[in-house]
Design goal:
It contains 14 helices and eight strands. With 389 residues, the chain is α/β, with parallel strands linked by helices. The strands form two sheets. A four-stranded parallel beta sheet has the order 2-1-3-4, with helices on both faces. A four-stranded parallel beta sheet has the order 6-5-7-8. Helix 7 runs parallel beside helix 9 and helix 12 packs across helix 13. Bound molecules: iron/sulfur cluster. Iron/sulfur cluster binds next to helix 5 and helix 13.
Length: 389
């Protein structure tokens, strides 16, 4: 295991060459590498086939977009531009296929473009269920996942594969447990777990196999428990809206430096949104469907039925003893921005202070955000709940 988990995780985030994935391929010749777009994909299906699932979460702050802009209108978020840019550079050419979860029109259109641009690679547009009933939406989704498994395997999944799928579910249950322990420590003692390090550790799940990622998370958690650090006079905030295109690490650090401990968030949400372990006894495809429908948190991309997103956010604020909410949404992100007014109304009614800003993954100027987050923090420290009025 790496002696400094935080710097290893930082290296993984900064790596632009795909060297870690290449090294994995060399160690596992012939095993499939499968990419998946945000915000959630059943990674277990790839692990059960002996493969590696790699999250394609955009190009980040430093990627120069040369070709990507030509494929999209100006009023579209930034993520698909950098994904196309990386694809045109050949970053994913060794991948067996790519999964596009049905979270928004942008991802759907990107899946169609991929079929035209990269015909040598299979594309799975994964229809996440819009019906919460396990017997209807769950059955449909289990069928979708069987189809995905047959694409990853190159044949129909058999009983032996289903056993391996159960083992993969158990593995990602352990991975979620490790991430939850770290998140609980971060929430209880944020001064011991700098947010940028915590984020890098979570983010490493995009490229590492869960076996390795669990070790990384546990080593970092263990080291953080005994870290010498003084608590700061920061307010506690929930960060909402950043589940897909990611803000830069500099932006996250800016929020914290402006006096806000981020104690709960929806960054990279699909990697850590399990509320309870998924079942490891039932049919594994149905267990994944049940897990998505019944054992995962609410999310902007997930159909909620009559469940109340505002009440869910307020519960999170109260559970985390948060002082307020910062809405951070990617520019032009429909799923994030469409629900924001409803969530803000719910917070207003509950007298919970909130503020909001938009970003793109390549936003590198933080002065405005520093002032906004700093003012938010100061106003809460000075006036408490009155700041919401
Ligand atoms: S940032 Fe929003 S609009 Fe863009 S791909 Fe992600 S979910 Fe879709």
């Amino acid at each position: 295991m790496h002696t400094d988990p935080a710097s290893y995780a930082r290296q993984l985030r900064e790596e632009t060459t795909g060297a870690t994935i290449e090294a994995w391929r060399r160690k596992n010749p012939g095993a499939p590498v499968v990419g998946y777009l945000p915000a959630y994909a059943p990674r277990e299906i790839v692990y059960a086939a002996g493969g590696l699932a790699v999250g394609i979460w955009g190009g980040g702050l430093t990627m120069e977009i040369v070709q990507g802009d030509a494929y999209f209108q100006s009023y579209i978020c930034h993520l698909p531009r950098s994904v196309i840019e990386m694809a045109k550079m050949g970053s994913f050419k060794a991948y067996a296929g790519i999964v596009f979860p049905s979270i928004c029109d942008v991802i759907r259109n990107l899946s169609g473009m991929w079929k035209v641009l990269f015909p040598g690679q299979w594309v799975k547009y994964l229809d996440l269920p819009q019906n919460l009933d396990l017997a209807t939406g769950g059955r449909f989704y289990a069928g979708e996942m069987r189809h995905l498994a047959s694409m990853v395997l190159g044949r129909e999944p058999d009983g032996e594969y289903e056993e391996r799928l159960r083992a993969a579910i158990s593995l990602t249950n352990r991975q979620h447990e490790a991430m939850s322990e770290l998140s609980a420590l971060r929430s209880a003692e944020p001064h011991r777990v700098p947010f940028h390090e915590y984020y890098d550790i979570l983010r490493a799940a995009l490229v590492l196999h869960p076996e390795e990622h669990i070790q990384l998370v546990q080593a970092y958690t263990q080291a953080s428990r005994v870290r010498e650090a003084k608590p700061l006079d920061n307010i506690r905030v929930v960060l909402a809206g950043a589940f897909c295109e990611q803000p830069s690490i500099g932006l996250l650090r800016t929020i914290e430096r402006a006096g806000c401990y981020i104690v709960n968030h929806d960054l990279l949400l699909g990697l850590h949104f399990r509320r309870a372990p998924f079942d490891t006894e039932m049919d594994p495809f149905e267990a994944l469907a049940d897990g998505y429908l019944n054992r995962s948190k609410m999310a902007p991309f997930k159909y909620q039925g009559a469940r109340d997103r505002g009440a869910d956010l307020i519960d999170t604020v109260r559970r985390e003893r948060a002082d307020g909410v910062i809405f951070a949404s990617p520019s032009f992100c429909d799923p994030s921005l469409l629900e924001q007014p409803m969530l803000q109304d719910a917070l207003d009614e509950a007298s919970i202070p909130h503020t909001s800003f938009k970003y793109a993954e390549n936003t590198g100027q933080y002065q405005g955000i520093r002032e906004q987050a700093g003012t938010f923090s100061d106003s809460i420290r000075l006036w408490g709940e009155e700041a919401a009025r």
